[in-house]
Design goal:
CATH architecture: 3-Layer(aba) Sandwich
CATH class: Alpha Beta
CATH superfamily: Class I glutamine amidotransferase (GATase) domain
Oligomer: single chain
CATH topology: Rossmann fold
Radius of gyration: 17 Å
Length: about 250
Amino acid sequence: MGAGGPISPRIGVCAALERAKWAVWDMPAALVADNYLQAVREAGGVAIVIPPDDAVADDPDRVLDVIDGLLLIGGPDLDPGTYGADRHPQTEPPAHTRDRMEIALVRRARERDVPTLGICRGIQVMNIAAGGTIEQHLPDCLGGDEFHRRIIGSFAGNEHDVRLEQGSTAALACGALLHTVTSHHHQAPAQLGDGLVRTGVAMDDGVTEALEDPERHYYLGVQWHPEADQRSSVIGSLVRAARERLG
């Protein structure tokens, strides 16, 4: 922003490491879907992409010292070993470096009260970082083959309603107590980690859809995908919290 304009907080966005093709290249790349970045930009933030890095896992302050908020995006299932479980046959292969780095970043960000938002995989990272566990394949306990994973080019058809707790960070972020969301997942938080509270549940099946730490200024995880909904104010709420922290 120009002189005298609103502060532009720096939002660290954790990237996936995936094989990608562009121009003449075909190789591993650090990837973040642009709708996450666009939501940060539209809220007045500056997005800083953080690729998986073992050095950051060992010393997360080297990143947290230079950002004002942390955004954890969707992606593959986490390694069940990170929460002491055996791998379910439907659990995807792990991304060890990404798992280690994101868990370390979240733990330290929570200690430092850095505003943190976890989306889909991100809510699961936040729960594991606090000592919680993950339900590895929801159809096993809820029935249905695909659960909330139906997807053909977009999230259309995966809409469902989530009930949010009054006064919670989740409700304030969404601007409603009953919120229609879009999702794509077959896992969700099971046992909650220390200090976390469940503030959102799916109306149709009771799956945990939002959790947070009420002792922190802004520490929120959502199981759905607000970046896929142009009307959503959730990512914008992270940017606002980061701006408030800057004063």
